[in-house]
């Protein structure tokens, strides 16, 4: 049975080409389907553009590699809807949080392999990237300070509770530094106690 499956895939590759096969495997992996042939072809063209970018980048001398993910058939406008980070002019940003010269990685430590970075998280259809930025920073800082105790903090708490007092708007965006202001007077809950739902909820 296994050899038959391999032979079938090889036949498909010969018939449709490598990119077509990759696209069909991508659709299968993420359960993708579209109601019209036009939409199918449009999404395929986006996938091919992504494939070209991946091939060119990975052939370069870059220090990192890239690959396909669930966004490979999305438009820029569709991806932009997930960006909930609000930005402000530099002179309006809190000075306390904008001193990058203090945080250069002079030690050369890879904190992922050192065990101080949580696995990749998915914000879903919610413009809450600002909360993931904040929890990621808190998780890393807590892990280093505690000598290796890595905890996963709750983004949903920030989505639901940061609120207008801190100029946060849940899935409609916010500022990561305002999360720190919120935590100054509120206990940072764990993700296991306050699970992520990718929707605006009640605090």
Uncertain runs are: 1-9
Rg value: 21 Å
Question: How many helical stretches?
Answer: 7
- Mass-distribution shape: globular
Number of domains in the coordinates?
Answer: 2
Q: What separation lies between the terminal Cα atoms?
A: 53 Å
The CATH topology of the largest domain comes to: Cathepsin B, Chain A
Structural class of the secondary elements? mainly alpha
Order of helices and strands: HHHHHHH
Into which percent range does the helicity of residues fall?
40-55%
Q: What is the CATH architecture term of the largest domain?
A: Alpha-Beta Complex
Number of strands: 0
Identify the CATH homologous superfamily of the largest domain.
Answer: Cysteine proteinases
Mean of pLDDT: 83
CATH class of the largest domain: Alpha Beta
Strand content: under 5%
Main sheet overview: none
Explain this structure:
This protein is mainly α. It has two domains: 2-80, Orthogonal Bundle (Helix Hairpins); 90-185, Cathepsin B, Chain A, CATH 3.90.70.10. Helices cover 44% and strands 0% of the residues. It contains seven helices and no strands. Helix 1 crosses helix 2, helix 5 (129-146) crosses helix 6 and helix 5 crosses helix 7 (176-185). The longest helix has 22 residues, at 37-58.
